[in-house]
Design brief:
This protein is 36% helix and 23% strand. By secondary structure, it is of the alpha+beta class.
């Protein structure tokens, strides 16, 4: 008989379910996609009930696979993680009142200036630690207060994405410190809801749930369908936000270790022992499992590369070919690409920034544009990394990279050469669900504490990429020119 831990991640476009043993070995995993609805321009909504049924389907598939692989495996716990900022409103009976407003939603963008001014006037920004943005929970709540006040009048409880799923599986109403810290409703250093916002914005702060630690025991699963009976009655962890879950799986718990997650966008995060008093406004400060997490976010990573692939009718390996081609050694006379196709966050913080290919000549070929494209994305990531490291002000002991972007060796090598940093590449792509499973193991008492769980289950790097110092020198010349262009055009 062996112990199995389930981790569930309510991501931006799909739910991912993973079953792992207590040594971190993945037994089975599955996912199900759901829709994002845009009934009006700038809106991005999802149906929370779809999250629940997709999670059931994915978990059923995982358990079916597990039976085939290990009939003696016993499910001991479940943990949760998910997209930050996205929220669900429930009535007094616990039913969903309206579709969830996700972090991608921009309907509240016109409230940024007004909200920022009100918070600055009262000196509250330093306690919130993050600048108002359309996707952070506070702003769409203020939008609802003006445009759908009847919805807030009916609201009994606000839950974040992963908390709604845990509620459906356990009946427990709560959230955790990491997810709460992304709402712009929390006193960051005190790790409590900021009650003063009730008077500032006439908000009912009573709808906000209890805040717990991510590994806290938060009920047991109940009412499981027949296909999930093996998960019936197991302890559930409160869970955490997606980047903090990835940090658990990647072993990023101590200052000096930097996590880079490469996907549709990109996140650069590193733990800090004390809550910063002031940081670059393009960065975010969130609660971590212990201490805080300083994070820079890039909107244009994999999304920009996928756009280039469509425009140039290319595949992913074409980027690697363009990077490896001797003819395309970096020089000031190659084209440049600004990747800001959807604006950008770190470090320029501009919703109006746009993308461009620049310095194009008749002699340039398709591969030149491909090289310029991936180089521009890498330069954007390097800029964000530089902003994070400058804010932290301490030496880097290790950079760990995970996510879908790790499939491209050329991408990683170019990033290593550009930053002149050694990068440790992590093998498991489903790190968020693994982090959730780790929390479940602590909640169930399988591990005495989070440190022991991470030591047992965290992912080891399967590749280490060293920078090429000669290529770094050439790339710095390119990057300086790229920075000049980007500053003039953003």
């Amino acid at each position: 008989m062996s112990d199995g831990l389930v981790g569930i991640d309510i991501g931006t476009s799909s739910v991912k379910v993973l079953l792992t043993r207590t040594d971190g070995a993945v037994v089975a995993q599955a996912s199900r996609s759901y829709e994002t609805y845009s009934p009006k321009a700038g809106w991005a909504e999802q149906n929370p009930v779809e999250w629940y049924y997709c999670a059931q389907e994915a978990a059923s598939e995982v358990l079916l696979k597990a039976v085939e692989l290990d009939r003696g495996l016993q499910i001991r716990s479940v943990g949760f993680t998910g997209q930050m900022h996205s929220f669900v409103l429930l009535d007094e009976q616990g039913d969903v009142i309206r579709p969830a407003i996700t972090w991608m939603d921009s309907r509240a963008r016109d409230l940024i200036s007004e909200t920022t001014g009100a918070l600055e006037e009262l000196g509250l920004l330093t306690r919130l630690q993050n600048m108002p943005a359309p996707g952070l929970t506070l702003l769409p709540l203020l939008w609802l207060a003006r445009h759908e006040p009847e919805v807030l009048e009916r609201t009994h409880t606000l839950l974040l994405a992963k908390d709604y799923l845990r509620y459906r599986m356990t009946g427990d109403l709560a959230t955790d410190t990491t997810d709460a810290s992304g709402t712009l409703l929390m006193d960051m250093s005190g790790r409590t809801w900021m009650q003063e916002l009730s008077e500032v914005f006439s908000l009912n702060m009573g709808i906000l749930p209890e805040i717990r630690e991510p590994w806290a025991h938060s009920g047991t699963t109940r009412g499981m369908p027949k296909s999930l009976k093996r998960m019936e009655g197991v302890p559930a962890a409160t869970g955490c936000a997606d980047q903090q879950a990835a940090a658990l799986a990647n072993g990023v718990l101590t200052p000096g270790v930097v996590q880079i997650m490469l996907g549709t966008g990109g996140q650069i995060a590193t733990p800090v022992p004390e809550c910063p008093r002031a940081v670059n406004r393009s960065l975010n400060v969130f609660c971590h499992h212990s201490g805080w997490l300083l994070q820079g976010s890039i909107q244009n990573a994999g999304s920009a590369l996928n756009w280039i692939r469509r425009m140039l009718d290319s595949e992913w390996h074409d980027f690697d070919d363009a990077i490896a081609s001797p003819k395309r050694a970096p020089s000031p006379f190659f084209p440049f690409f600004l990747p800001y196709l959807t604006g950008e966050r770190t470090p320029i913080m501009s919703a109006s920034a746009t993308g461009a290919w620049l310095d194009i000549r008749q002699s340039h070929e398709r591969k030149d544009l491909l090289y310029a494209g991936i180089e521009g994305v890498v330069f954007g990531i390097a800029d964000a990394l530089e902003a994070v490291l400058t804010a932290v002000g301490t030496a880097v002991s290790e950079i760990r990279i995970g996510g879908g972007g790790t499939r491209s060796t050329g991408y990683l090598s170019l990033l290593s050469d550009t930053t002149d940093q050694t990068v440790h590449v992590l093998s498991e792509s489903n790190t968020t669900a693994l982090g959730a499973a780790i929390l479940g193991g602590v909640a169930a008492g399988i591990f005495p504490d989070l440190k022991a769980a991470v030591e047992s289950m965290a992912i080891e790097a399967d590749r280490i990429i060293e920078p090429n110092s000669h290529r770094h020198t050439d790339l710095m010349e390119r990057r300086n020119r790229w920075k000049d262009l980007s500053h003039h055009l953003t």
